[in-house]
Design brief:
By secondary structure, the protein is α/β, with parallel strands linked by helices. Helix content is about 30%, strand content about 15%.
């Protein structure tokens, strides 16, 4: 099905042995390629250009070096503010995707028997575009949708296509990542993200976040700097995670009750008059409303909910207030505040409000709002004329009016598809089935959708559920548009093509999109080349495309956070909002009040919680041979269980155990440890691939989400990935 053809325009150019193999076999394995090029092994690697990792959405930049046409070495670009010159393990591993034996190589169509057959690009584009046009003609553009997580070019091109088609239903992976967090922060601070001046902080509290297990090298560097500079760091997490070694205290908490801890601490600060009243008076609205609500959230109340002593809650609050403004609660990302519980978004809003009590925003050692990104051009003129403005909002926007608009729940889309309101879905490098919600439910929904297309580089769980699969090139094989973003300082970066296309029948996503646009009758909105578009976007920066290609990344260090300067809050009030009347639209109070977890473990049950590992980003990287080998070598698919609980159940370290609930049953091995709260089990989230074409990842470990119901929180639409309970038993007991 997936024949492994190699490109003569790169790997095989000038290699007589390679040509001989191709002439007799019709295809070539990578082992054959290595043999064919053994004579060239003495050559030195040469610089091929600047690329940017595709292993996660951080896109950390590096310089790529090739040897005999094949990627040989990558060296981090220090100017990139996420990567800081140090690609993570995922980044090194994901660079192997270009050479994976499990790459998609040809357009595929599912036949009547449910099997994929290779078809031509002409057939694929023609059939898909005809179905798109029929759906629009019959039911309108809102019967279509897009779910994507990809490169900058992918973002621009596929979103422009859907805008040209008149369809507003464009979704991202936030439902299973940071949708609730970003939305909660937006409703309080007017921004979907903020960070901290970690190196200069005196006290930092992390809530369910582990930089060492996370994504961006910059985060790990900052935690290390904070530690080395003497910051007192508190890790609040049911699990002793990989970052806890840097911290002064590990505080195990009842899962899902972090919001109660914050409310209890805020009670202490206000009760004792430790808040920064000048900051509150000048920069905020709604303080009096929240101060009144806080009276009921005593440390004693919070202790009963969280399992953390009232004395410690008092101590943490006082310690942070006395260190202010060089103190803050880290905003988190995917876990507690991002998508885990029914209260995740309000937990994010609560921690933003606690930081406001400290008056620490944009203060040295405090929380910080990121400066503006470098401005790219607003495209104008006939050549870059934008499609007409969309007439409708995306599905779910009305139901989740306080959700960050660009991240409205993709699970809501699937609910609408289940009810027959969506007839066509295009996925772009978005393994929704593998990680957004319950995979069985999502697979069943997709099987009932008339047109499903996946543009990707590998046969993911989502791809195998689609009617058509279109093979993209990897990030190493194509040029990209400039990426403008901001962290501690603004940054501008560019990913360039550094190796020739490996499989000749794959195409860059932007080329696929343009072909679909032309076939759908909206090609006039793509009458430019990628280079022309990139050059036009860069005009306001004063940097040419050629210059950016040469240097890779620009870090605007002189335009960083203005510590102590005026703060531009992005809220409607123009100030930080302790209370926001818009929250009543979704049944919340204007100020932040306690919401208990949706699910509580019953007799013999445990809350199932999970998270990342340093070698995998969700399910993307699990088919990379070197990375999955680390999983095998260190037995990383074990389920963590508290030692005292394990003893009661007769489970010993390394025993085979069965985890089960009404949705799924699966077997794995036990990791018995004192480093986990007794009320829960912890399992890593990237595993459980159900696509047999990904031979390295197939059925390695369990699918975390297979134990979680298909669901959305009622306020922001996040997947509530840790609102599930399971039981555990020793196999054979």
């Amino acid at each position: 099905m997936l024949e492994r053809n190699l490109s003569r325009r790169g790997f095989l150019a000038g290699a007589a042995a390679s040509a001989a193999v191709i002439g007799t076999a019709g295809y070539m394995s990578f082992a054959d390629w290595d043999v064919a090029h053994a004579a060239d092994a003495k050559s030195e690697p040469t610089f091929a250009g600047h690329s940017a990792c595709g292993g996660c959405y951080s896109k950390c930049a590096y310089s790529a070096y090739v040897k005999d046409g094949k990627l040989n070495k990558l060296v981090g670009d220090p100017e990139h503010v996420y990567g800081v010159g140090k690609p993570c393990a995922r980044g090194y591993g994901w660079s192997q995707i270009a050479y994976s034996e499990n790459r998609l190589t040809d357009p595929l169509k599912k036949n009547a028997n449910g099997q994929f057959e290779a078809i031509s690009w002409d057939q694929a584009i023609s059939e898909i575009s005809e179905q798109i046009k029929e759906i629009i003609a019959t039911d309108g553009p809102q019967a279509l949708s897009l779910v994507e997580t990809g490169s900058v070019s992918m973002d621009f091109y596929v979103q422009r296509l859907f805008t040209a088609l008149g369809c507003a239903n464009m979704y991202r992976h936030g439902v299973a990542c940071n949708l609730a967090r970003n939305s909660g922060l937006l409703q309080s601070a007017g921004t979907g993200d903020f960070g901290g001046d970690y190196p200069n902080a005196k006290v930092i509290m992390y809530i369910g976040r582990s930089f060492a297990d996370g994504i961006r090298p910059a985060y790990a560097e900052e935690v290390k700097a904070a530690h080395d500079n003497g910051a007192y760091m508190i890790m609040v997490d049911p699990r002793y995670n990989s970052s806890a070694n840097y911290c002064d205290e590990w505080v195990p908490i009842n899962p899902g009750t972090d919001m109660a801890l914050i409310l209890g601490m805020a009670h202490v600060v206000v009760r004792d008059g430790l808040q920064d009243q000048a900051f509150i008076d000048n920069e905020t609205v709604g303080f009096d409303i929240w101060a009144e609500s806080l009276k009921k959230y005593t440390p004693q109340w919070a202790a009963e909910v969280t399992g953390i002593s009232a004395e410690n809650i008092e101590r943490f609050a006082t310690m942070m207030a006395e260190a202010a403004p060089a103190a803050f609660i880290d905003p988190g990302w995917r876990a507690v505040t991002g998508c885990s519980y029914i209260n995740s978004g309000e937990t994010a809003r609560a921690l933003a409000c606690f930081n406001a009590l400290l008056g620490c925003y944009n203060k040295v050692g405090g929380a910080m709002l990121f400066p503006a990104s470098p401005a790219l051009a607003k495209l104008e003129g006939t050549k870059f004329a934008a499609p007409p403005a969309l007439k409708e909002k995306k599905l779910g926007a009305a139901e989740y009016p306080v959700s960050l608009y660009s991240m409205v729940s993709a699970n809501y889309l699937m609910q609408e598809a289940k009810e027959g309101k969506v007839r066509g879905i295009i996925f772009c490098q978005s393994n929704m089935v593998g990680g957004y919600s319950n995979p069985t439910e999502l697979e069943n929904i997709l099987n009932g959708v008339e047109l499903t297309v996946d543009i990707d580089v590998q046969m993911t769980d989502t791809a195998r559920c689609c009617k058509y699969v279109l093979p993209d090139t990897t990030f190493l094989e194509r040029d990209d548009l400039p990426w403008s973003f901001s962290y501690t300082t603004p940054c501008l970066t560019l990913r360039s093509k550094v190796i020739d296309v490996v499989h000749p029948n794959t195409k860059p996503v932007q080329d696929i999109t343009v072909e679909l646009a032309k076939a759908c009758g909206v090609g006039q909105y793509f009458d430019f080349t990628l280079d022309e578009l990139a050059a036009a976007q860069l005009e306001p920066t004063g940097v040419t495309l050629e210059e950016l290609r040469e240097i890779g990344s620009i870090n605007y260090k002189d335009k960083g956070v203005d510590f102590g300067g005026p703060i531009k809050w992005g809220t409607k009030s123009g100030k930080f909002q302790f209370a926001n009347e818009e929250m009543t639209q979704v049944g919340l109070t204007p100020d932040v009040n306690w919401i208990p977890p949706k699910v509580e473990p019953g007799e013999g049950e445990f809350r199932l919680i999970g998270g990342k590992q340093p070698i995998h980003s969700q399910s993307w990287t699990t088919d990379i041979l070197d990375l999955i080998q680390i999983t095998h070598d260190y037995d990383l698919t074990r389920v963590w269980i508290n030692a005292s609980v394990a003893a009661e159940l007769g489970i010993e370290d390394g025993d085979e155990v069965e985890i089960y609930n009404d949705l799924n049953t699966g077997r794995t091995r036990a990791k018995v440890t004192e480093r986990l709260h007794p009320s829960c089990l912890w399992y890593p989230s990237p595993y459980g691939c159900n696509s047999p074409d990904l031979t390295n990842a197939y059925h390695v470990g369990l699918s975390f989400m297979s134990f979680v119901p298909f669901q959305m929180d009622p306020y922001y639409g996040a997947t509530m990935s840790q609102e599930a309970t399971v039981k555990i038993r020793k196999v054979g007991a």
